[in-house]
Amino acid sequence: MQNPAIEYDYTVAKWFSYLAILFGILGMGIGVWIAFELAFPELNYVAGEYTLFSRLRPIHTNVVAYGFTLSGIWATWYYVGQRVLKVSLAESKFLQGIAKLHFWLYFITALLAVVSLLVRYTTSKEYAQFEWPLDILVVVIWVLWGISIFGLIGIRREKTLYISMWYYIATFLGVAMLYLFNNMEVPTYLITGMGDPLHSVSMYAGTNDAMVQWWFGHNAVAFVFTVPIIAMIYYYLPKESGQPVYSYKLSLLSFWGLMFVYLWAGGHHLIYSTVPDWMQTMGSIFSVILILPSWGSALNMLLTMKGEWGQLKENPLIKFMVLASTFYMLSTLEGPIQSIKSVNALAHFTDWIPGHVHDGTLGWVGFMIIAAIMHMAPRFYKREIYSKKLLEMQFWLQTTGIVLYFSSMWIAGITQGMMWRAVDQYGNLAYSFIDTVTVLHPYYTLRGIGGLFYFIGLFMWAYNFYKTMTAAKAIEKEPQFASPMAA
């Protein structure tokens, strides 16, 4: 049971929860808009250059990855960290101040990042578009989080570090290393003494730049979209279900497997490029091996519900988390399949790739953050969840949206790949590029509709959270379950 002497300080966890909701709506709203732009190109020109796909797409990816997802990660960290370590932020004025500084500096940097991308200050490197002043702020933000992590660990009452803590620490260390190496850049003003002082050039060039970039890019997925989300589900699923983690040993085995294997899979983004062939092959091999630790984690989550599947009927948060685990299994099988050279020859540059990314992001990352925040809400405000029926409706609407999204993109991608490769009896290409665009129009429309369903679900989530905060039935004690580390 929770130690009654500890009064946990949820202030910063609440603030990051608000941001996760805000950035979720903003980032995915832009995503829905640009999805419909592909189906209906005239939407590109609604507000001149500012609504062009090329202008909005980097904002969409960065707001979802570094706005919605990071806010969700930090909301859960400032909740889970205190509880599994059995220490309150309020016990250290220094750490309490660091946590609040972390939030406000992050919020300001996030706003500057959106504005900078909108006015086209960009390095043009996927998932690493921020120019050097913002990179410096990102490093400071990350250091502040590190102080929070190791500061709380240093004053903890619980000797054992629960598995979720391992994953949060790995997130911090992994992103720190990757971000520093990939974002080494020199302001061009220092070299030439002229031009825009905010512009920079990478310290790497050509093939080397590509290798470092996709070492970072794929591991941004590893250490932002995967590792910290596993940290969440290892805490919230046992807490919500009252079931202990199926196998603690399997959780550790999967952890070290992910750490050793994931880091070397990024080369599969550069198959059939100027990168040395042995490195492309290594990326493919490590990607296939990655199935083992990924499925180890996912199966461990699902087996945690062994004998308790009836809870799926009663608790919509269990639905979100169980389906999140299922989408994690799907996505971590699909990615390695796409990395096999013969499959990649068909799939690369097609819409199957964003289909893969989005079934993981929407189904795994999105569902887990939604469930985690709705689990915390009754404990934040000592009120019941306002409407479980609304959560049920949201679950089914968003699940339908994800299925429409990834299935349409699977079909579109394989159709693209086959049409691009088709030749007539003379060896000439059988289809022009515009032929493929015409064929794909209905699938692009379906993708937009699927995204719209998911987007509407975010408003249902926001409304439910707000009503839980302000109008739900008050409870004297937070809901109690058997829980990891008795937190």
TrEMBL record:
UniProt topology in membrane: Multi-pass membrane protein
TM region(s), chain numbering: 12-36, 63-80, 101-122, 134-153, 165-181, 214-237, 246-265, 285-305, 317-333, 362-381, 402-423, 443-463
Main location: membrane
Entry annotated with the keyword Ligase: no
Subcellular location: Cell membrane
Cofactor(s) annotated in UniProt: Cu(2+); heme b; heme
A GO CC term assigned to this protein in UniProt: plasma membrane
UniProt domain Cytochrome oxidase subunit I profile: residue ranges: 16-487
Protein's pathway: Energy metabolism; oxidative phosphorylation
GO molecular function: cytochrome-c oxidase activity; heme binding; metal ion binding
EC category: translocase
Record-given protein name: cytochrome-c oxidase
Organism for this UniProt entry: Nitratiruptor tergarcus DSM 16512
